[in-house]
Every structure is written in C-alpha cells, then in structure tokens.
Amino acid sequence: MRAYLVQRLLGMIPTLVIISVIVFTVIQLPEGDIVSSMLDRLQAQGVDTTEEYVANLRSQYNLDKPIWLQYGHWAVDFLTGDMGYSILFNRPVNDLIWERLAYTLSITFSALLFTWAVALPVGILSAVRQYSIADYIVTTLALVGLATPPFLLALIFMHIGFEWFGISTGGLFSPEYEDAPWSFAKFGDMLTHIWLPMVIVGAGGAAATMRILRANLLDELNKPYVVTARAKGVGPVKLVLKYPVRIAINPFISNIGLTLPALVSGEALVGMVMGLPTIGPLLLQSLLNQDMFLAGSLLMWLAILVVFGILLSDLLLAWVDPRIRFE
Amino acid sequence: MQVGGCRTPPRGRAGASALQVALLALALGLWPTAAADQSSADADEPPWPQEWFEAPKTASQVGLTSFSQSPFLDDAGLPPVAERLPDNPVVIQPYRSVGKYGGTARITLWDTWQFFNWEHALTLSANMRDVLPNLAESWELSEDGRVTTVKLRAGIKWSDGHPLTADDFMFRLKHVWQDPDISPVVYRLVQGCEFVKIDDLTFQYVFPGPNPMFANFFAQYGSHFVDPMHFFKNYHGAFRDREELDALTEEEGFVTWMAMYGALRGWGNEDAKLVPTLRAYKVTERTPTKMRLERNPYYFKIDPTGQQLPYIDKVDAIILLENSKMIAFQAATGQLDFAAFALKTEDIPLLKLGEVKGVNKVHVWTRLHISDVSIQPNYNYDDPKYRELLWGTGERRFVRALSHAINRPQMNDVIYFGRGVPSQVTAHPTSRWHEQRFQDAHTRYDPEYAKALLDELGLEDVDGDGLREYPDGSKLTITFEYLDFETPKTITMELVRDYWREVGIDMRLKSVERNLQSERAQANKMQMTLWHADKVTDILFPLVPDWFYPHRTGWDIAMWNHWARYYQTDGELGEEPPPSIKNLQYWGDQLREATTEEHRTKAAKTLLEAAADNLWTIGTVGQAPHPVVVSTRLKNVTANGIWGWDNRWTLSYHPSTWYFDEGGGE
C-alpha cells in the first residue's frame, strides 16, 4: 500500500511537468498576445491604443523576452508558491485566486453535496421502483436536467429569483450584507443566495449520476445473490443498501477525480452568467485574453486537482470494494 | 441648443447666438422626420444650458462668496470647505435643477468613466466644437502654432489636499510619456514636445513644428497629461533608489516597476485607494465584487448656489467581468442607478420593459459614430485584377456600385428600429465642416444603377450562377474579414452580403478573432475589412483623420497600407501613391498644422469632398441609438446626449451635478 502510494505520487511529477509545458505552449499558440487582446479594453478605458503604446506595454511586461525564458520564470516561481502576475487584471495571480477561492470552494462543494444528496436516494428509488410513477417523474426531470445547459438554467432561475422572491441578482450577498462582518444574519443571507448557483451547478451532475446509479443498480438487483437474500427474508432496506448499492456506486467513486475539475469548469459558465466572484470566470477571461500566467496557473491547479482526484478515487475504490487490489 | 438634439424639437431660447440659430435650422433641416416622430417622447426635455457651451463661470464672476458642503463631510475632521475649494471655484450649471446631497449610487465598474468623468486641464463644449477651460483658467497658442501656454486655476488640490501644480503636468509628460523605461517608443502626438515651467501654475508645451491642434488633444485626452507627482515619484525609477524600488516591485508581485506604475494608475488593484485624484470621487475600497468610492472633499467645482459638487456622496461600482447581458438584466430590473457602457442597441426593448414597470428610465442617446460600419476596400491589395477593379481604368465605379447596392433605410429599420441615420463616412453633424451632401453621397438605394455600373466595368455573369465574374472570366469572390466588436457589425455585414449578392457580387464573410485581425490587417492580407467610423468630430478629426487619407496603418485601418507606409517613411518603404493621393496627404498635413481657420477649413473640405466623391470607405448607418439607463431617482441626466469616445461619453454633461431626489435613499 505505502509503496503503491509513493509510486503513484512520483508518477505525478513528470505528468504535471508535461502538462505545464503543454499548457504554456497552447496558450501561446494563437497569434498575438495578451497586449494585443487588451487593445479594445484599453481603448474603452481611455487609452489611445497606438502601436507605440502596444510596444511599450510589451516591454513593461517582459513579453519581448524569449518564450522559454518566460516559462522558466513562471515554472520556478510556481514551485515556490508565486504564481506570477496577471497582466489582464494588473494584479498578482496569488491575490486574484486567493480572494476568489473561498467563494469557489463553497459553491463547488455545496454543489457536490447537492449532487450526492439528490442523486443517491433518487437513483436508488427509481431503480428499486422501476417503471413506477415516481420513476417516470424523476427520469423526466433528470432528462430535462441533463438536456438543459447550466447557463440557461442560471438565466431562468435568476429571473424567477428576482421576480418572485426579490433576490438581488449577481453576487452572493444582498447589498446590505456585503460589508457587514460575518454574522448569522450574513450567513443566512448567503444561504438565500448560494442555493441558486448550487442547484444550477449541481443539477446536470445530479441528473447524470442518478441515471448511472439507476442503471448499475438495475443490473445488480436481478443478480442471483439478491434474489437469494430476498428469499432468505433480508429486510428490503438492508437488502438494497448492503451489497447492490455498494457495487453500483463504484463508477460513481471512480469518477470523483474527474468531478472536481468538472465542477470548477461547469461553475465557469454559471459564474459568468450570474456574475459570481469565483475562479471560473477568471479562467475564461484569462484564456480569451491569453493572460498566460493567470491561465497557466489556473490550468495547472485544475491539472493537479485531476491527478490527485484520480488517486483519491483509486484509494476510495479499494476501500469500498475489497475485490480491488493495489498492483 | 442641442446638436445631437435632432431628437428633440429645439425650441427658441432667449440669448441664443446667431450661430446657434443657424445650427438649429440646420438640425431641423437634417432630420425633419426624426424630429417629428420624437417630439412626443421627449417633449418635456429642456434644452442644454447655455453654460455648457461656454467657459465655466467662477464664483467671483457670479458673486458667490459663501460655500457649503455635504453633511457627509461634516464630522470628517477636514479643513473648512472654503479652504478646500480653489481660490475661485468653478461654477457648474446643472441640466435641470440644483440638486441635494446624499445617497449611494449603484453602478457597474464599466460605467465609472461615465458616471464621474475625468478632470482634464481643458474640456469640451457640449456640441464638441470648442475647447473650454477646466483645471486651467486659460490657455494660449503662440502665433507660429508651436507653443501652447497653460495657466492653472490657483488653489486646486488633489484629493489628499496636496496642491495641483505645473510639476504634476511635467511629471506625466517627461517621466511617463517620454520616459525611456515606460515608453521606449514615444507616442506620435507628443514626440519632440518640450515642457517649460514658467511658475507653479503656468507652463508651456513646446513642439518642434506647428501643432495648433494640441489643445484638442490636451482636452480630449487630458487624463493622460497629469499625475500627482508627490505620490507617483515614490514609485518611479527616476526618483527613487533603484534597489529599493525593485524590492518594492518584487514585494508587490509586479514584473517591473513600470508595470507597478501602470497598475497604480489604472486602478486595477486595492492600492488604487492610495492614489490621489482630481475626480469627483476617490476609491475607498476594492473587493473582488465591488469598488467603493466616496466624494473627493477637495473637488474644485460648485453649483450655482455655492454647494460643493458632487451631490451624490458615495458610489458602489459592482465588478462584473465582461458580462453585458447581466448588466442589461440588472439595468432592466432597476438594480442600477446608471448603466450605459455595456449596453447595446439591441437591448433597448428589454430595458424599456423596466420603464413600463416604472423601475427605470431609458434615455436613448445617439452614438457618435458617423457610421457604425465603415467598409474598407483594400486599394493596395496584392492582386492585380482586384486592384484594377478598385483603382484602375474603371475609376470609382466599382465602389460606387457597391454603395448604391446597399439598402440603408431597410438596414436602419432592421438593426436600429429606424432610429439611426444612413450615412457615408464624413464629418459628424456637430462639426463646422459637416455638409449634408457629403453625408448623403452615393447612399441612394438603386440596385439597377449599381448593376449598370458593374456592367460598364465588364463584370458579367459568364457561367450563369447569378454572380459576376472578372472580365477575363475568372471567379470574382471578395473575402471580407472583420472583427465583430463594439457596434453591430455581423448583422450589418450579413445584410450587406445579401444586398451585394442581389447585384451579382459574391462576398464571403469571415469573422476573425482580434489578434488575427491585427496581424492580417497590418500584413496587408485583407481584401476588404471594416471598422466603426469614430474620430469624426471637430475635436479629433483634425488630429487623426483616419478615413480620409493614407497616413497610418493599424488593426482598424487596412485599406492603403503601402501608401501610408510610403508617407510615414518619406518614401523608404511602401509604394509611391498616385498624385491624387499625394495631394490628399499634403492637405492632411495642412489640416493638422494650419494656423489660420480659413486654411484649416480648406484642408478639411478638400479631404471631406474627396472622400464623398471617391468613397474611400463605404458607410452604412450611423448616429445609432444607444441606451442610457438611469434609475427613477437619479436626476439631471440629459435625455439626449452624444455617446462616444470623442467627447469621453459624458464629459460635457457634468455628471457631478446628477443627484437623487428621495432623501438619503439607499
């Protein structure tokens, strides 16, 4: 077990190095750079965007240096915890990510919990009561949830939230709580806002997970050991939860590694639409504008999440299902 | 009177000058239908105050001796208001009425350049014709046009109470514009400029050659001419020990000290709250979602009753990244007090829903662009057959045919609710050089005439596919590459493509990304492209008459690169232009350098006439409606401004006089 862990951890190093090179190269591939893509923004801010100005900006940000040198600086700094400087936002990347991290984590993890909290019971229910009215209803809802892009859900929910419940759109707090120090009232206010992005980000995942769980469980429920157990008089709840669910849940666990980054990137669109101060919109902006330090650092973090997520799911799988052995 | 005010039936007003009466008549003549169909909507809008067209009065001129301040500042431990104001404060006339203090304005970060504007040494008149004093009390141009002398008002202070002096202007020019580290390449319009300080309040900009239009640049671009030296010298390599500065740069996480300087100036980070300002509001806090500002206690303007401006105490600017739909939604549901920058013509119906519900008021301003799309055929494209078509024995027939094939009235209805103005690219109606015939040249929709012109050129449909071929029988296909940005370009060009197809011209649209636009435009790889035609007012047209003669290349202008390079490099690079173009280049120089009004007018008219006749670019529809949404409580916002870069959107409409009319009101 320990040898396996060490081996896996060592294996991550070349993976991440290769990813970092690819990330940095791909961001640089399109023509132009951050400065040329900032032109319209600069013009909007009252800067005359002449060629002279562009050349001056390039030299201020060292963009006229060779690319491998820029990569080297960034990579070394990244290892020491300094993620470089965002030209787009005129701020150090650390600050940008740090100030958005709490919001992102709270939305992502609440969405993850929402996904599980909904998908597990509903999936089990619709498998156990296959073709019942309840199954049809949740199946329909799940298909709608799968088919609706999250940004559209966001628009619809935002409209409903504002029109019917008077929730101010955008952000995680009502204007009156934005400045207030943390208190129960502020926490409550956040809860009234956070459920929207939570449901929207989690909805697609919940629907997918529920369908997978249902299909897997249906396979298991008809196996002889279940029939035998039922014949032996095992109670219905224990019967389903003790073995079939544990097996049906495997693909679900092996998916955790991919779920984490998917939630962050799924959150990007929703964050964009709803104007949330999360990392997703930051990533999108940085990619669109070829802000390489910001985009590179964010993508690196996503890569690290994936790599560790996969390790985590492998370990979890082995723990849940003793048939799986470390090699 | 309102010049953009074709939208309002201008009414007679005592004291209007002869010029203004003439302009009124002109405006009425230009847009009789527009004026008629607008009369009901904006009937209660008063004309713009006369004061907006003249140098602002000072307190002593209007006999004000006592001043008051917002209660917000009462317990702030500041010196008395009379000491904070300059020796002789500037009196600003509000649009409708004197306002009252209080409130927090809700805007987005996008509108911070509009909701409270920059304070320049000079500013612009509301009709964009004249340069007026602002921070400066007066300015003067020497007879040879080389020297502009500026005299500041005495006693103006930065928001930290430090006095504004000539050094602040010197610092910006010498140590930013012309600093070898910050600007290795010096910007064209300040190259060779010398700064001469005469005393603390008086200074000169001295140019090697005549530069009589410098005041226009200085007024329009004025925020880039002054920095608080007492603050910025702590962050500048020429004033601080380099090692210390490098350590600070490192500590703050910047790449170079120049980048740190730029960041401080561009208020991209929390440190923006440290930077003293001359504007009506100063930053107090910046979070990931919000920028908070409060009134600058040293602001130098007052209202006609002696109250220090601005009226509104605080501003909360929400930070929404590139999210114009969200902003439109918030504006439509009354969650913002002012929104305009991120809104588009197509948002107007949505925004009006809010007006129906009574949660906001939608003002429809006129965008400054004389044409939202200016189509640029590339006269220097490296294909002899295509070049022959644009610039050969057929003279201007091809481009004229393309122009006559465009159904501008229909385009106006489809895209602009009929509220735009079909137009070629020429001077803006506010300009003293505007002529209706320039604007209307070859705008008539006449596909038959277009076909006849194309027939004359020998462009016939040989293979029977309904599309014309070159005279030698080879395919004529125009690849139209463009960047979709700012104005409604894609929908305009889709219509143009269909109109051209009707007369047998095969044009293929290719929307490119902005870096590609920049690369391909400058490499002369585009057969045809477009941009929006701004810089057409009296303020910027004489400085950068981009559409009227070849003098520069860029991502926005790619129709005569070779001729422009020849001009820029005195014949070293590029290609020698034909005599007619050389003549225009001569007049272009004259437009910028002329020291007499007659000579400048002659230059301007020569360029405009040539553009109208030759159609260097093909215009479509301009002066388009732009939504400016205000909350029902925000007062004194004019209902019909001109929206654009040339006048910095709101510079001459005095946002510091906007106020809330319902008490403290959050």
Are there runs of chain A of 5+ residues with pLDDT below 50, and where? Answer: none
Shape of chain B: globular
CA-atom Rg of chain A in angstroms: 24 Å
**Portion in helices of chain A:** over 70%
Query: Looking at the structure, what is the overall shape of chain A?
Result: globular
What class, by secondary structure content of chain A?
A: mainly alpha
Most extensive chain-chain interface: A-B, 56 and 56 residues
Oligomer: heterodimer
**Would you identify the regions of chain B where 5 or more consecutive residues have pLDDT less than 50?**
1-41
What strand order characterises the main sheet of chain A?
Answer: 1-2
Q: Quote the average pLDDT of chain B.
A: 88
Number of E strands of chain A: 2
Major sheet description of chain A: 2 strands, antiparallel
Which bin fits the share of residues in helices of chain B?
Answer: 25-40%
Beta percentage of chain A is: under 5%
Q: What class, by secondary structure content of chain B?
A: alpha+beta
Which strands sit side by side, in order, in the main sheet of chain B? 3-13-11-10
Average of the residue pLDDT scores of chain A: 80
Distance between the termini of chain B: 34 Å
Give an overview in words:
The complex is a heterodimer of chains A (327) and B (666). Chain A is mostly helical. Chain A is built from 16 helices and 2 strands. Chain A has helices at residues 2-28, 34-37, 39-44, 51-60, 67-79, 93-128, 133-147, 150-165, 184-221, 224-231, 236-242, 244-248, 250-254, 256-274, 279-288, 292-320, and strands spanning 85-86, 91-92. The radius of gyration of chain A is 24 Å and the shape is globular. The mean pLDDT of chain A is 80. Chain B has 666 residues and is of the alpha+beta class. In chain B, strands 3-13-11-10 form a 4-stranded mixed sheet, with no helix packed on it. The longest helix of chain B is centred in the last third of the chain and has 18 residues, at 597-614. In chain B, 53% of the residues are buried. The chains are: A mainly alpha (327), B alpha+beta (666). Chains A and B meet through helix 3, helix 4, strand 2, helix 6 and helix 8 of A and helix 10, helix 11 and helix 19 of B.
